[in-house]
Specification:
Number of helices: 28
Structural class: alpha/beta
Distance between the termini: 64 Å
Strand content: 5-15%
Radius of gyration: 46 Å
Helix content: 55-70%
């Protein structure tokens, strides 16, 4: 996984920007319920009056309030008296909140005096002599008119009596706000404009936060998409580079279909997970934790805890059932890719043997298995959404049921209940987002492990950091010193104790029965595999001690299967990279006897070549592959049974032209036909992976029984005796 994460290194900045934007979006989301609560509680219920600090109050009312507080000077210093009305100097929210605590108790006391009516007056005047007060005055006025020595004990008693109301919380606040509202009306302030101003201000703030949320969401989506796309690009490039560097041993570990799936579908799964991580997984905990902190002091936290417990149980239950299927899913995609590739590649053979129905059944079997697994996973995961919706609705009902009692008891306001419901939904939505990710996470985790398996596979062909220089005095020399080789995990050697030297200007041919080890032997020269024992020297240096690029630059290989790439004839011949002019391409095509059929094509060298060269014949494909090697002008030519699809006349012309071109090069030929190797300077006969004979045609006809049998099976006695 470390190598996968390394692909994210260059994307650190956009990831950090996305995280910052997620935090901004979460803060804006968390602010909206508070503003909605304020609109309901303050804007609607309290008429836009936030607290118990009046901006304007009549002089007499201020004097009534000051009877029930010891902070006369602090309060009066905050106001300016003009025309019998006190006006607040500093109308900032902070200052009003500080003064509100000092006004609340006096306002409750005055409000209760007035609410008590005649009973309250009777209680106050019971101990007062007749004539010492005005019977028509209200209770507050009577109390204010008393001498200070009588008033103070009475106000102290009333404060103690009314102090129990302070435990009612929101009811006390409502009583104080109602007092302020009545006072505003008394001084002639427009209550409707106060209410509308507050609602509009809060509404505009909510609109501003909403616009920020939209902007943040758009930018997060942009960053997440770009990060995921770039990450997918980097990961595909890393996997491709790793696969291209594989030797034959590593290719035997992974099938072609599996490598294609890992480079496409598996990386796509990881890429989708990255988008989900940046857009949802990181956002969910920020939002959930923020919402928990907002409602942390509430008495209904047990409702949230119950909902979270239910959600976690559902997620665990679904993952237990779905996770094993996710592990099988990617392997089934491998299988259907394998079957599809085999069928599409082998269509001519399938039609020739009328096996269409058989192959349809084979594909259908793989397809049905994949479909059933997908259906099981999707059906299991589709249970999540209805269950989550049920939990969310159930939690809402439970909160309203519990919150109604709290509102009835005066410890909660309607707006607070609405905000609590929204915060609760945020917490549940956070878990819902995480649960949605849990649908993709198992499959992406399996895909990540499969991709990591490719990236973590060590190449058996180890590249040296500093390669040795080639010995130019031995240019073109290929020497095998007691070479033995076995494939990985094989029990026996494929070739054993092979020793020979091929020199510049000479042609060395390898012949033998099928499976004798001819192709394996020449594949050791460019280090497609490393020898198990012995040494292979090119230009006097062990091939394991030079840079791979330097070694392969000296070799022109024509593989057993003439592989062509999509493009043009010219681009395929010039594939070596060091061919920069059209004259070289045409020269190489002429040597390879390919110029004839190229000239017959309407577009000549610009004619299109389909993938794999399927739009040219086998012989044409071989001649283009030979031309590609000739155009490179290497010092060592390797032909791995590269003349098998050519007719005898073309084969002879090509070898005669090649003899002139390769006069200063070393030529190694693997062949099945005796006619191809008759004129070789050295023929090596392989039998069961061992050297059965080395010499010219004439020498081997006399000394090597295996060669003689091959020659007589293909040539007449007169031709073989040449």
């Amino acid at each position: 996984m470390k190598k996968i994460l390394q692909c994210l290194k260059k994307l650190t900045l956009p990831i950090l920007l996305a995280v910052v934007l997620l935090a901004v979006q979460a803060q804006c989301d968390l602010a909206l319920p508070d503003y909605m609560s304020d609109i309901v509680n303050v804007g609607i219920q309290q008429g836009g009056i936030e607290n118990a600090t009046p901006e304007k109050i009549r002089e007499r009312e201020m004097e009534y309030l000051l009877m029930f507080t010891d902070a006369d000077e602090d309060i009066l210093s905050a106001y300016t008296l003009a025309d019998g009305v006190y006006t607040l100097n500093d109308k900032s929210h902070k200052n009003k909140e500080a003064l509100s605590e000092r006004f609340t108790m006096p306002m409750v006391c005055v409000s209760m005096l007035r609410a008590g009516g005649d009973e309250m007056k009777a209680m106050l005047t019971a101990s007062l002599p007749e004539g010492s007060y005005d019977p028509s005055a209200e209770a507050a006025e009577i109390l204010y008119s008393l001498p200070e020595q009588l008033r103070e004990p009475m106000t102290a008693g009333l404060r103690e009596q009314f102090s129990e109301y302070l435990t009612l919380g929101t009811m006390v606040d409502q009583m104080a706000v109602e007092y302020v509202k009545n006072e505003y009306e008394a001084v002639g302030m427009d209550l409707d404009s106060i209410q509308m101003r507050y609602i509009m201000t809060a509404g505009l703030k909510m609109l501003g936060f909403s616009l920020l949320i939209v902007a943040a969401a758009i930018l997060i989506s942009l960053f997440a998409s770009r990060v995921a796309a770039k990450f997918g690009e980097n990961l595909r490039l890393a996997v491709f580079r790793q696969v291209v560097s594989f030797s034959g041993s590593e290719f035997n570990t992974f099938s072609t279909a599996s490598l294609i799936t890992r480079c496409t579908n598996d990386i796509q799964q990881i890429q989708m997970l990255v988008v989900m991580l940046l857009r949802m997984v990181l956002y969910a905990p920020i939002l959930g934790i923020g919402a928990l902190l907002k409602i942390g002091g509430s008495g209904m936290m047990w409702v949230i805890g119950l909902a979270v417990l239910c959600i976690v149980c559902i997620i665990i239950f679904l993952l237990i059932f779905a996770m094993p299927k996710f592990n099988k899913l990617q392997k089934m995609i491998d299988k259907i890719n394998l079957v599809s590739r085999e069928i599409l590649t082998g269509i001519p053979v399938i039609r020739a043997f009328s096996r269409e129905r058989h192959e349809e059944k084979r594909f259908d079997k793989a397809n049905v298995e994949l479909t059933r697994t997908n259906l099981f996973v999707n059906r299991t995961m589709t249970l999540m959404m209805p269950l989550m919706t049920f939990i969310m609705n159930g939690v809402s009902l439970l909160i309203i049921w519990v919150g109604a009692d709290l509102i009835d008891g005066g410890t909660m306001q309607v707006g607070d209940l609405m905000a609590f419901i929204q915060y609760s939904m945020m917490i549940i939505m956070s878990f819902l987002m995480l649960s949605m990710t849990s649908i993709m996470l198992p499959r992406a985790w399996v895909a990540a492990k499969r991709v990591a398996a490719v990236l973590n596979t060590e190449n058996s062909i180890r590249e040296v950091e500093t390669g040795k220089p080639f010995d130019e005095t031995k240019k073109g020399t290929v020497e095998f010193r007691d070479v033995s080789f076995r494939y990985p995990n094989a029990e026996e050697n494929v070739i054993e104790h092979i020793s020979f030297t091929a020199r510049r200007g000479e042609t060395t041919a390898f012949i033998g029965a099928t499976g004798a080890g001819k192709s394996t032997l020449i594949n050791l020269i460019p280090r497609f595999y490393d020898v198990s024992e012995g040494q292979i020297l090119v230009d006097g240096v062990d091939v394991r001690e030079v840079k791979l690029a330097d070694l392969r630059d000296r070799i022109g290989l024509v593989p057993q299967k003439g592989v062509l790439f999509s493009g043009t004839i010219e681009s395929n011949i010039a594939y070596a990279g060091n061919v920069t002019d059209g004259d070289t391409v045409r020269w190489a095509a002429k040597i390879a006897q390919a110029d004839t059929f190229i000239g017959e094509k309407p577009d000549g060298y610009d004619s299109e070549i389909a993938q794999g060269g399927t739009n040219v014949s086998g012989g044409q494909r071989q001649r283009l592959a030979i031309a590609r090697a000739i155009a490179k002008r290497p010092e060592i030519y390797i032909f791995d049974d590269s003349f098998s699809a050519l007719d005898y006349a073309t084969d002879q012309k090509l070898r005669e032209a090649l003899r002139e071109v390769s006069a200063e090069s070393t030529v190694l030929i693997v062949a099945q036909r005796i006619s191809t190797v008759l004129n070789a300077d050295r023929i090596i006969v392989l039998d069961g992976g061992r050297v059965a004979g080395i010499g010219t045609h004439k020498e081997l006809m006399e000394s090597c029984e295996e060669y003689r049998q091959i020659a007589l099976s293909q040539l007449s006695a007169e031709e073989a005796g040449r």
